[in-house]
UniProtKB/TrEMBL annotation:
GO terms for cellular component: cytosol. Residues 193-330 form the MoaB/Mog domain. One of its GO terms (molecular function) is metal ion binding. Catalyzes the insertion of molybdate into adenylated molybdopterin with the concomitant release of AMP. Keywords: Magnesium, Metal-binding, Molybdenum, Molybdenum cofactor biosynthesis, Transferase. Pathway: Cofactor biosynthesis; molybdopterin biosynthesis. Belongs to the MoeA family. CDD domains: MoeA (cd00887). It is an enzyme of class 2 (transferase). Its EC number is 2.10.1.1. Coiled coil: none annotated. GO terms for biological process: Mo-molybdopterin cofactor biosynthetic process. This is Molybdopterin molybdenumtransferase.
Length: 415
């Protein structure tokens, strides 16, 4: 199904595409990223490409969970009635490798993590003794089997320690090291070009002339690419000039896995991206039934996937979240490529246009969501204050306060 949609130009039949149809188009453009082996130190934040099997069990041997005395419970189990005094035959610190069996009528002083001597079936914590080093008095004893860590009770050798598709955080890297792994198979991070277009754009810091604005989309999109797992490269924005646009793209395209453009895809004049790609590659343009972000384009140029986003910052951000981010994460092998969605109650009423899926900026907290600003796609300050997107279905035009809606959690939503 996805492949059929990807081959069908957006809007060729004269109708507006659904969000799901365009998602399928973009997903079909990005294949699974190639696999590479990286050392543990370089694997943080990457996505595991294949299952990783434990080389050793955890724990690797029976060991003590407490500082105390390794003993035979049959000899110390009655200590609560009358203290038991026994000679301390051995000291076993953590790391000792020449552990000898526990002889009858003796105990071994043992430290946390040290190997349990054969014959012992309980560790009496030092707090229940007088702490003796030659002879110890045990005033009480826990049940048999207490304070022991059995070999393999955490994970057995030969079993899957880390499953493919798992993002590698601190705990996962700690486990990999604990089972003896030095390198991990991960998906290579896609190299993503980000290019903004518009003759009105000026680099931040320069003096603005009437009608000019600071270029912000490339900073926004590059950060979004990085957060999704790609390696962004910001190209210098270009004016509404087809030749300059094509020269900029062609100079970099061979090194990229994906090109993302913003601007130049609407229905008016001076739409440089549409004009440049009209006879080049397979990029097709059309409308998607959503707001913001209706004008979209996708295809390939010189075999490189291209996704064209609208130029308004909020439209570009929402379009990236809905179409590009999940496709990038799927290519990286994430088992769950989509943002977390949760139900929430509306703090106030809202309206939405019929026939278009609305993605409103919101502030989510404790199961309640408040709308942040209006629906305008130029309201960047409101976007920066939002921590979720409120999703209003195409067939819903009005919702009262207290109604339940789906929200897509974005940066900071769970902080």
């Amino acid at each position: 199904m996805a492949g059929d949609v990807a081959r069908r130009p957006i809007g060729q039949d004269g109708r507006v595409r659904t969000v799901e149809e365009h998602q399928a188009v973009v997903n079909a453009l990005l294949p699974a990223s190639p696999e590479e082996q990286v050392p543990l130190a370089a694997a943080h934040g990457r996505v595991l490409a294949r299952d990783v099997v434990a080389r050793v069990p955890l724990p690797g041997f029976d060991n003590s969970a407490m500082d105390g005395y390794a003993a035979r419970w049959s000899e110390v189990g009655g200590a609560a009635g009358a203290p038991v005094r026994l000679p301390v035959a051995e000291d076993i610190p953590a790391g000792r490798t020449d552990v000898v069996p526990l002889e009858a009528g003796t105990v071994h002083r043992i430290m946390t993590g040290a190997p349990l001597p054969p014959g012992a079936d309980v560790v009496v914590p030092v707090e229940l003794t007088d702490g003796g080093t030659d002879v110890v008095e045990l005033r009480d004893s826990p049940p048999a089997g207490s304070h022991l860590r059995r070999a393999g009770e955490d994970i057995a050798a030969g079993t899957v320690a880390l499953a493919a598709g798992r993002p590698l955080g601190a705990a996962q890297l700690g486990l990999a090291a604990a089972v003896g792994v030095t390198e991990l198979p991960v998906r290579r991070r896609p190299r993503v070009l980000v290019l903004s277009t518009g003759s009105e754009l000026v680099a931040p810091g320069e003096e603005l002339q009437p009608g000019q604005i600071y270029e912000s989309n490339s900073a926004l999109l590059a950060a979004a690419v990085d957060e999704a797992g790609g390696i962004p490269r910001r190209l210098h924005f270009v004016p509404d000039d087809v030749d300059q646009f094509l020269a900029t793209v062609r100079a970099e395209l061979a090194t990229a896995d994906l090109l993302i453009t913003s601007g130049g895809v609407s229905a008016g004049a001076y739409e440089v991206v549409k004009d440049a790609f009209r006879t080049l590659g397979t990029v097709e343009f059309g409308k998607v039934a959503m707001q913001p972000g209706g004008p979209q384009g996708a295809g390939t140029v010189d075999g490189v996937p291209v996704v064209t986003l609208p130029g308004n910052p909020v439209s570009a951000f929402v379009s990236f979240e809905v179409f590009v981010r999940p496709a990038l994460r799927r290519a990286l092998g994430h088992a769950s490529p989509d943002r977390l969605r949760v139900p929430a109650r509306l703090a106030g009423s809202l309206r939405s246009p019929a026939g278009r899926r609305q993605f409103l900026r919101g502030r989510y907290e404790s199961g309640v969501v408040s709308q942040v600003g209006g629906p305008g796609s130029h309201l960047v300050a409101h976007l920066a204050r939002a921590n979720c997107l409120v999703v209003v279905p195409e067939d819903v035009t009005e919702l009262p306060a207290g109604a339940e809606v789906d929200v897509v959690l974005i940066e900071g939503a769970l902080q």
